[in-house]
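Appendix B, record 7
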Amino acid sequence: MQYSNTSDTVDSIKSKLQKLKEDKAAGADNMSPRILKALCEEIAVPVNILFRKSLDTGCVPGDWRTANVSPLFKKVESIKLTIIDQSALRAKYVKS
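Structure tokens (predicted):
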């Protein structure tokens, strides 16, 4: 898979970098979003080359495979079993 129009992808990378929120924490690479945003004009072309090379060869750098994944728990309302629900559970699990 080859991309012929690289200016579109460079512009896309620049716009994504410019939309970064500066007050967020750095990623796994320890690069501050503030630095990435400030250098978006200079690093858009090299990042595009890396992405294209990765897509063309099918190889992904090891650093891109790591991620900090943490679960986000939602607040769940406590479930109250009614008498009917309790008897239905008993009937399901306790068979005579």
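Remarks on this record: The mean pLDDT is 77. Residues 6-65 form one domain.
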